[in-house]
Amino acid sequence: MKDTQKPVAEEVAEKVETVVTEAAESVKPAAEKVEKAAKKAKDGVKKAAKSAQKKAVETAEKAKTGVKRAADKAVKGEAAPVVYVQYQGAEEKVEDLVAAAKAAFAAEHSHTKVSDLKLYIKPEERAAYYVVNEKFAGRVDF
Fold this sequence. Notes:
alpha+beta
């Protein structure tokens, strides 16, 4: 290289170094902001996780209490009543009529789940009429 080119190369290198240093300095505030935002997000996620965990524990405790109350009632002997329909010397348990209605429905609609059952008992006809899921109707004789 010629001696005149060396100072030009050094001058260009210094200018490049200055530009790079200035660029790095101008990026620092943005990098710091990103770092702070990441820390805030991390803290927010931690708080949300703790809150969700607390709510899950509270819900589990409420469910546990409800189950315990139901079990206590069952232990105390609070049984469901047995209901009979009597008419002209005949007697039928309502629970048997419900079972017969469900069986009759299942025989015709084996793939349909019973989510709602209404039973209309007509002792004078010795029949019980049923409506399942507010869509299907039928009759069982007793």
